[in-house]
Amino acid sequence: MLFQIAPCPRELPVRETSFNVVPQYYNGVRDFHYQPYDYHASSSLESCSCSSGSDSSRTSFRGPWCICIVVCVVVATLAAGLGLPLAFNPQPQLQTPEERLEVVRKLLKDTPLIDGHNDLPWNLRKFVHNKLFKLNLSAISQQEPWSKSLWSHTDIPRLRAGLIGAQFWSAYVPCKAQHLDAVQITLEQIDVIKRLVEYNSEHFALVRSTDELKQIHKAGRIASLIGVEGGHALGNSLAVLRTFYNLGARYLTITHNCDTPWATGTSTQKQDGLSAFGQSVIKEMNRLGMIIDLSHTSMNTAKAALNVTHAPVIFSHSSAFSLCNSSRNVPDDILKLIAHNGGVVMVNFYTLHVTCNGTATVQDVINHINHIRTVAGIDHVGIGAGYDGINMTPSGLEDVSRYPHLLAELLADPSWTEKDIVSLAGLNLLRVFEKVEEVRDKWKLADILPVEDSAPPLHNPCSSIYS
Ligand SMILES: [Zn+2]
Questions:
Q1: Residues 141 and 58 in one domain
Q2: 344 Cα–ligand 1 center, Å
Q3: How far does the centroid of ligand 1 lie from the alpha carbon of residue 52, in Å?
Q4: Which residues are listed as membrane-spanning (predicted)?
């Protein structure tokens, strides 16, 4: 299905040297035009429809009716014989979990399954100090400390079993590094992601655009993207933001749990959202073509960012606050704003974000997906499990091999169509990413210049006079 783009003049701000922010919203999902590749042309389970209109002009009236009656009798006899309650089951061919899994496998060949957040790079730092030369990512599940760690859920065989098409690898830096060596640690994490991809190029390829993502998925490798986690990684510098982008980072999580001097995080005691410099960060990300990630931000920061951005945003690994009142989850009023913005909330699997306690099931995760679908719409929900950054996972979703089982379980619900499944799995995130690229391209055409605003000086004893 194609949605036509309504021209949106607000996407093109006039050239400006200082940004006076005017709230910008898109007109909901119909403003977005995503042309899925290799999908929707046909489907193995698409229901067969008999058109009688054109046939009637070519055949006699009696012929088709006779055929129909015969077919009905045969089908009814078979159904009665097999005990299939056809009248109550719109997808009688999807009776077993294995049949549903087979459908999921077919769907994920054409549509990349995209996960919004994986913390394997931080485990590489913790466990092997970023020394990758001797690491066999195909065998770590049998090696300590990986095999014994509750924080380890990712390796190549399980990624392949999980049919992952694209993964945002997190270049995470802890809040404790803020105003110290946060920029250096982030650079090192970007470096380790790139080397990980390079050393395993048979399976991974670094991608920087939606076109590259689709090409790599078609080629059968896992498209690997870099997401920088925590605005404190910028060291209060837009030059550092631009450098991260040039190194391949395609989203920035605006804060981790801590406040930065320009944005508040989930642990904040303040009422502030974004400062003037924080608004400049959002604008510069729009100009660069970098996805704005609001997981971990305070809700005031999320609202302020949604007011400033000209492009859709994501929550790369957050669930629904209505079902579990963790400050990391997204309340309904923000879910509605996300629908208006055209963004995506990618559901997190950490049990403390799913059930607010140490245990959860696949059904609990499905409840979050369904809640976001109900409040924001099917076009605004995705998957951001957070594997390798969590130490408690739902039963049935123990590691990265389990995504197909989640999708197959959703298919057991007659209200979930194949189109819904591929929207959740990857098309929604691709749509956001494409729109972010589109805004970048339009701003480039409009000759919007880089933002040169500076953050107020911190008078940090660790800084030189040149900071
Ligand atoms: Zn996180």
A1: no
A2: 16
A3: 55
A4: 65-88
Q: Which residue has the tokens 């859920």?
A: 153
256 C-alpha to center of ligand 1: Å? 7
Does the global pTM surpass 0.85?
A: no
pLDDT tens per residue, range 418-447: 999 999 999 999 999 999 999 999 999 999
What whole-number distance in Å separates Cα of residue 392 and Cα of residue 248? Answer: 30
365 plus 320 within the same structural domain: yes
Total residue count of the chain as it appears in this document: 467
The CATH number that applies at residue 178 is: 3.20.20.140
Q: Calculate how far, in angstroms, residue 260's C-alpha sits from the geometric centre of ligand 1.
A: 16
Q: Do 114 and 75 share a structural domain?
A: no
> In this structure, are 210 and 109 located in the same domain?
yes
Which ranges constitute the DSSP H helices of 180-292? 182-199, 210-218, 238-246, 276-288
Same domain, 78 and 124: no
Ligand 1 centroid to residue 229 C-alpha, Å: 7
Ligand 1 centroid – CA 386 distance (Å): 7
Count Cβ atoms below 10 Å from residue 301 Cβ, excluding itself: 28
Average pLDDT for the chain: 85
As for how many domains the chain has, the answer is: 2
- Domain range for 427 is 103-445
pLDDT band, very low/low/confident/very high, at 47 (cuts 50, 70, 90): very low
**Count of CA atoms in the C-beta half-sphere (13 A) of 448:** 21
